[in-house]
UniProtKB/TrEMBL annotation:
<feature type="transmembrane region" description="Helical">
    <location>
        <begin position="146"/>
        <end position="164"/>
    </location>
</feature>
<protein>
    <submittedName>
        <fullName>Uncharacterized protein</fullName>
    </submittedName>
</protein>
<feature type="transmembrane region" description="Helical">
    <location>
        <begin position="229"/>
        <end position="250"/>
    </location>
</feature>
<feature type="transmembrane region" description="Helical">
    <location>
        <begin position="36"/>
        <end position="53"/>
    </location>
</feature>
<keyword id="KW-1133">Transmembrane helix</keyword>
<keyword id="KW-0812">Transmembrane</keyword>
<keyword id="KW-0472">Membrane</keyword>
<feature type="transmembrane region" description="Helical">
    <location>
        <begin position="176"/>
        <end position="193"/>
    </location>
</feature>
<feature type="transmembrane region" description="Helical">
    <location>
        <begin position="199"/>
        <end position="217"/>
    </location>
</feature>
<feature type="transmembrane region" description="Helical">
    <location>
        <begin position="73"/>
        <end position="92"/>
    </location>
</feature>
<feature type="transmembrane region" description="Helical">
    <location>
        <begin position="6"/>
        <end position="24"/>
    </location>
</feature>
<feature type="transmembrane region" description="Helical">
    <location>
        <begin position="113"/>
        <end position="134"/>
    </location>
</feature>
Length: 252
């Protein structure tokens, strides 16, 4: 294996370890919300604004070239895919909340129905598959860009997995986390053996962008999270500063 392949494999294994061991991070499970989760949320929001949105613009140019559409229509298609990803995950989050509320009323159990939970895990697995595939097929191919992508996604997985486990810890610990691990390693393996056309990668990235935007804001913004603003701001500012430093270094 080349050094680059070993690096992306190590990153995929770190993602997998997050899925497996998030339940062991007891310091995250507290009210008010752990400052570390607020910091992770800030980094993820920084990733959305400093990487995701600019890269959507870059993929719009790919759409324009591949389809022959004019620039405005191509850009609209990219953002429509991002909106579809956001809408899908918003619908799943609402279904989880409705199922949990219904089960609480009927059975006195603060858990969603199994089918709804597994639908959420399936959608999360699809998102994870795309994230790990893109370890090997990203618009920004610089080493620092890869490190920043890895750091942002690792912290995103911490907050997202913590939320999923909170919804149904028994199912998550028994089977759910292993489904996420399989999606993680499967996405990395696909990235090594399958090279999709640029327009397909653009579609995947746009869908990923919408899902990540929704999940980041869902985990950090609700009032009942009782989040911390300063750690959130610190994470966002730190990530933005690193991206600006990378941009300056590349252009210098």
């Amino acid at each position: 294996m080349s050094a680059g392949v070993l690096v992306t494999l190590a990153m995929a294994l770190a993602f997998a370890a997050t899925h497996i061991f998030v339940g062991k991070l007891r310091f995250l499970d507290r009210t008010p919300r752990s400052k570390w989760l607020s910091f992770a949320g800030g980094v993820a929001v920084g990733y959305v604004f400093m990487h995701v949105l600019p890269e959507l613009g870059a993929h719009a140019a790919t759409f324009e070239t591949a389809t022959g559409f004019d620039a405005t229509l191509a850009e609209g298609l990219v953002y429509t895919l991002a909106l579809a990803g956001l809408a899908l995950f918003y619908g799943l989050e609402r279904a989880l909340a409705a199922s949990t509320g219904q089960r609480m009323e009927q059975e006195g159990r603060d858990r969603p129905h199994h089918g709804v939970f597994w639908l959420h895990i399936a959608a999360s697995s699809l998102l994870i598959l795309v994230i790990t595939y893109l370890l090997s097929h990203r618009e920004d191919t610089s080493p620092l860009g890869l490190v920043l992508y890895f750091a942002a996604m690792l912290l995103h997985f911490v907050t997202a997995d913590f939320g999923s486990r909170t919804d149904h810890p028994e199912l998550y610990d028994a089977k759910g986390r292993w489904v996420l691990v399989a999606a993680t390693l499967g996405g990395w393996a696909l990235g090594r053996v399958v090279e999709l056309p640029e327009i397909a990668i653009g579609c995947l990235f746009a869908f990923l962008a919408g899902g990540v935007m929704l999940l980041v804001l869902k985990e950090e913004l609700p009032e009942n999270r009782r989040s911390f603003f300063l750690p959130f701001l610190g994470g966002a500012v730190l990530y933005a500063g690193l991206v600006l430093a990378e941009t300056y270094h590349v252009s210098a």
